[in-house]
Design goal:
30% helix, binds zinc ion, 511 residues, globular, alpha/beta
Length: 511
């Protein structure tokens, strides 16, 4: 039965949200809560911290969102939005876990606004400080801060201008449109843009991002290879390249382009959200895949897409208004072949590793002693490192099989190879630790094997190669290890928190 919505319910709910925000930005939590964001009404938002707050709105008239600051009290928590901030490995290490006055939040207004477009969005989202040590991890991500948001962006080969390393940044939401432009895909006849309005130049059904035109030479590639190194810290990758520890990435940069300031993930800077964004060109708030976990207010269900019994089916949540790059390829070039190996957002791919698991036709992991390029010290130090090395070896094997036409397939027009040990190791040692560095070296070896397969297929000169990630990774401070839930128990606000900062007021109320 539909219940009458009484005005008092609305007022009570607003009071509860305000109480929760006040509790979260209290000085008692200043070492752990960087900022809190929430919508105030249609296209109006507030971001608050212990030091002040900003309220802003979104203007959608042109079809491209614009943002206007309405008021600031105290210090604007996201005043600093420079994507070049803390760029460079030495600087990031020297200023590890920067406090909120030494952090930057690139695209903060757009990133917050898109997030709250989702019908599954919480009442407010709290971002952890850079220092906050959660889940026992020396490396973390998920927040708006630049180090957690910054993924690498490297492109090389057919259709790519050889610019070398440039002082620029892009966004993860631009990845799929850039691939679509490289492949010369057709505009979508019903394409819509970032405000939900019709977009005549959209290469994907919902295109929030834009092709990275500055790196494109105007010609197209017959084949695109994507290697997604999950959670790879961009500064770390560039440092490994400079140190000669990632020769295959180095050779791509030598012939192509690398953005020194990386590729900025959308809020939340987490795996499911930004894999989907990278592969669709739609922000997490628009793709249907808001985060790794959220609460469905209608059904009361709580998807947890990193759970082993859910992750292979994650794309059941992909919005019907969103098109993957694989589906866009099929629309433009019917009968062409694409592969998505250990990629969550595999909708429309001709071959999918996750599809094998769903169909129960494969996906068994290789034994560790058969895995090439697994750093022995790292494997000895961490069982999880060994496990993810097996996953990555299988992902690479699946991709190479497609390049060897093992399924009777044509050569892949698009092959997207997901590698995960970079994220696992980054969490475990932190991006400044030895495991994370070993993971970059190992992933570079796998990239080399994949490039050899493209060489053997004889089409390297017609192939573009991208090395990307879904988000960054930041070193945490193990001394800042207290959970924030105990500090919130003093409030009487019934709420549920999922996904490390998504607060739903009055939902379930079971804490
Ligand atoms: Zn992660």
């Amino acid at each position: 039965m539909h219940q009458e919505h009484r005005p008092t319910d609305h007022a009570e709910r607003r009071d509860h949200v305000e109480q929760l925000e006040a509790a979260l930005v209290d000085s008692a939590l200043a070492d752990r809560v960087e900022l809190v964001a929430r919508p105030l009404g249609q296209d109006t938002y507030r971001i608050a911290s212990v030091e002040g707050a900003v309220e802003f709105d979104r203007i959608t008239e042109t079809g491209m969102p614009e943002y206007r600051v309405l008021s600031v009290s105290g210090r604007n928590p996201v005043e600093h939005q420079d994507a070049a901030h803390l760029s460079g490995h030495a600087i990031e290490r020297e200023r590890a876990h920067p406090d909120r006055t030494d952090n930057a939040y690139p695209h903060a207004y757009d990133s917050v606004a898109q997030f709250f477009d989702s019908p599954a969005a919480p009442d407010l989202i709290a971002a952890h400080t850079a220092a906050h040590f959660t889940d026992g991890h020396l490396g973390q991500h998920g927040s708006l801060g630049v180090v957690q948001a910054r993924a690498p962006f490297i492109a090389s080969g057919a259709g790519v201008r050889p610019l070398g390393i440039v002082d620029r940044s892009t966004r993860v939401v631009n990845v799929a449109p850039t691939i679509a432009a490289l492949l010369g895909l057709d505009v979508h006849p019903d394409g819509i843009g970032p405000t939900g309005e019709r977009r005549a130049d959209a290469l994907l059904r919902r295109q929030d991002g834009d092709p990275e035109r500055d790196v494109l030479d105007g010609s197209t590639a017959d084949h695109v290879v994507v290697v997604l190194m999950d959670g790879c810290n961009a500064n770390l990758l560039h440092d490994a390249v400079e140190a000669g520890e990632a020769p295959n990435v180095a050779s791509l940069i030598a012939d192509g382009v690398a953005y020194r300031n990386g590729s900025i993930a959308s809020l939340p800077t987490a795996t499911l959200a930004n894999h989907t964004t990278a592969a669709t060109g739609a922000h997490p708030g628009h793709s249907g895949v808001l985060h790794n976990a959220w609460i469905d207010r209608v059904s009361g269900g709580a998807p947890d897409l990193l759970a082993m019994d859910q992750m292979f089916w994650a794309m059941q949540y992909l919005s019907g208004e969103v098109e993957s790059i694989f589906a866009a390829l099929e629309r433009s070039r019917p009968g062409s072949f694409s592969s998505a190996t250990f990629e969550f957002c595999d909708t429309g791919a001709s071959f999918s590793s996750f599809g094998l698991v769903r169909d129960r036709t494969g996906g068994a992991l290789p034994e560790l002693d058969t895995v090439e390029g697994a750093d022995p010290d790292a494997v000895a130090a961490s069982a999880a490192y060994g496990f993810m090395s097996r996953v990555d070896h299988l992902s690479l094997t699946h991709t190479i099989e497609c390049w060897e036409q093992a399924h009777g397939n044509p050569l892949p027009a698009l092959s997207w190879c997901g590698l995960a040990v970079t994220d696992e190791a980054g969490h475990e040692s932190g991006p400044h630790g030895e495991l994370a560095r070993a993971a970059v070296r190992d992933s570079d070896v796998r990239l080399g094997r994949l490039l050899e397969a493209v060489d053997r297929a004889g089409v390297r000169d017609r192939t573009a190669v991208l090395v990307i990630a879904d988000h960054g990774m930041e070193q945490t401070n193990p001394e800042v290890d207290r959970d924030w839930s105990e500090d919130l128990s003093g409030t009487d606000v019934p709420h549920r928190e999922v996904g490390g900062g998504l607060f739903y007021v009055g939902v379930g109320a079971t804490g």
